[in-house]
Design goal:
alpha+beta, rbstp2171
Length: about 150
């Protein structure tokens, strides 16, 4: 494993275009598409550190941050509504007029792009590593011996 090479690959990914998630929220007759771009690691950590989970809100503890505050304060340079940028005042007005479903969709989009994608990646890496271990010749021999109750005594 070339650690420096892996670090360089991750750095290139972080400096390139970031993944996005779009949620269609109930607004007007046809709804509106809100797109969230993933925040880079330091920006995401700073945002959730600034708005920790509220003690009396179970859903906050589940995700690890104040869902409402993070949604209201998500950096708007990483948000578009129907493909257009949105300013702070308009974002606050939009949040105010949304019902619970619309607000939850916004929070879900933020969580998906910043947390769920990383969880999915970890799961895939775990599966890939498990597959590598199963195909290792040493592991096959160990499994055969274990399935027969261990190695024979001489």
């Amino acid at each position: 494993m070339d650690l420096k090479k892996l670090i360089a690959q991750e750095r290139a990914k972080a400096e390139g275009p970031q993944p996005t998630v779009t949620k269609t929220i109930p607004l007007g007759e046809s709804g509106a598409d809100v797109t969230f771009e993933k925040l880079r690691g330091d920006a995401w950590q700073a945002l959730v550190a600034e708005y920790p989970a509220r003690e009396d809100v179970v859903s906050d503890f589940t995700i690890g941050y104040n869902e409402r505050a993070v949604t209201l304060n998500y950096p708007l340079e990483h948000v578009t509504v129907d493909g257009e940028p949105v300013d702070v005042e308009t974002w606050a007005e939009l949040y105010e007029v949304l019902d619970g479903v619309g607000r939850n969709l916004l929070a879900l989009g933020i969580w998906q792009v910043n947390v769920q994608d990383a969880i999915n990646r970890l799961a895939e890496l775990g599966k890939a590593r498990a597959a590598l271990l199963q195909t290792s010749p040493g592991n096959r021999a160990s499994r055969r011996a274990a399935s027969k109750g261990g190695s024979r005594q001489k």
